[in-house]
Design a protein that fits this description.
Elements lengths: L15 E6 L3 H10 L5 E7 L3 H11 L3 E3 L2 H5 L6 E4 L6 H10 L3 E5 L6 H14 L3 E4 L6 H11 L6 E9 L10 H4 L3 H4 L1 H12 L5 E9 L11 E8 L4 E7 L7 E8 L2 E6 L8 E3 L15 E3 L5 H5 L1 H14 L7 H20 L3 E2 L22
Parallel strand pairs: 1-2, 1-4, 2-3, 4-5, 5-6, 7-10
Antiparallel strand pairs: 7-11, 8-9, 8-15, 9-10, 11-12, 13-14
Helix pairs in contact: 1-11, 4-5, 5-12, 9-12
């Protein structure tokens, strides 16, 4: 299977004018990261609650607030739309963005399943708009350095990848399977799948998955609260995915890359270089912290450590140059297809094939148009 690279009909120069859809957790991380990204200006923030949107906009110095997607995409001063909304809203808003011919970046996971992700890819491709998939982990500095080491041959041939992400504090909307498209396997597992694909790819596609998942203790969800999946790739190598919503200590993000002549390990939240004992309430410590008192390992510059800065700088630079970024909606479809296979495997208790038909349509390999709006 050949994945045709995206190309551009023209090149974009000058500052990229950005609109952000959303006023929650992800939008705040985007705005915090964008403070340190060159070549852009955030011109408008969209939130269904004008009060909530204005509070976030004022905190980050954004002048305008809109309350609908339509009000954003009809503006002439918007070149790029960042979608920072829950997963169940992605198809709806991407339809409006692509109909307006705007370039866009969408947060992970691209959809609640591979079918939704493929529909988003189809709309972007048929509209000919530039698109980027905001999978933060493959832009996290620790993993970028690990990839550089692996690519240099330092650990020989990469044989397997183990990726873990867990915490005990899912967002309220994430606990509703109809909105989430599953449990932690969908919301956190997409990170782990992307990491495995990055180290074992790019042309070595996942072919089948064997998975286990169950609700072991949480009473506020109906999905799994823990899951493990083994993803086998076309050449026989594998990635192991571990996720959970029962890690009460806080956010646990660790990865291992095993090679024929070495090993690389990363720990974004457990070995931060900062160790503290708080005898009183410390306030905000880090994303999904397990406690605000006692022993803790705060993360300095979270947007940087988690990859938000890296991905947004990359997207702005690529749009300016009129070239495709290294994470597009194609990646979002593949990652979702792997998670779909994992959920089927949990039910069947056997290996399940990864259905990549969502990226094989001729309609998903067209030319991408990169145009500047009139000032």
């Amino acid at each position: 299977m050949s994945l045709a690279p995206l190309s551009s009909a023209s090149q974009s120069k000058g500052s990229v004018r950005i609109a952000i859809l959303g006023a929650g957790f992800v939008a705040d991380f985007y705005l915090r990261a964008l403070r340190y990204v060159r070549g852009h200006e955030v011109v408008v923030l969209m939130a269904r609650s004008e009060e909530k949107g204005r509070a976030l906009a004022d905190r980050h110095g954004v002048a305008d607030v809109a309350t609908s997607v339509a009000a954003v995409v009809r503006r002439d001063d918007v070149d790029l739309v960042l979608v920072a909304l829950p997963h169940d809203l992605h198809v709806e808003v991407v339809r409006e963005i692509t109909a307006a011919g705007k370039a866009l970046v969408c947060t992970k996971p691209l959809g609640r399943n591979a079918a939704e992700a493929a529909e988003i890819l189809r709309m972007a491709t048929e509209a000919g708009v530039w698109h980027g998939y905001a999978e933060t982990e493959v832009f996290a500095p620790g993993l970028v350095k690990a990839k550089e080491l692996a690519d240099s041959g330092a650990i020989g041939r990469v044989l397997s990848v183990r990726a873990r992400e867990a915490h005990g504090h899912p967002h309220a909307h994430a606990r509703i399977p109809e909105r989430m498209g599953g449990g932690p396997l969908r919301g956190l597992g997409c990170h782990c799948v992307a990491i495995g694909r990055w180290f074992l790819g790019p042309d070595n596609h996942p072919v089948e998955v064997l998975a286990w998942g169950d609700r072991l203790c949480r009473q506020d969800v109906t999905t799994e609260d823990n899951a493990v999946a083994i993803v086998r790739f076309a050449d026989g190598r594998m990635a192991q995915v571990e996720v959970g919503w029962t890690h009460t200590a806080g956010l646990d993000v660790r990865n291992e890359i095993h090679g024929s002549h070495g090993w690389i390990g990363t720990d974004e939240t457990g070995s931060t270089g900062v160790h503290a004992f708080a005898g009183r309430d410390a306030g905000y410590v880090l994303e999904k912290a397990g406690a605000r008192t006692g022993w803790m390992t705060p993360v300095a510059q979270e947007p940087w450590v988690y990859g938000y800065h890296g991905e947004l700088a990359h997207f702005v630079e690529c749009l300016q140059a009129g070239v495709a970024p290294r994470q597009t909606f194609v990646d979002g479809v593949i990652d979702n297809a792997v998670i779909d296979a994992a959920y089927r495997s949990i039910q069947s208790r056997t290996w399940e094939a990864v259905d990549l038909s969502g990226i094989e349509s001729p309609a998903t390999s067209g030319e991408v148009r990169v145009e500047r709006s009139a000032t």
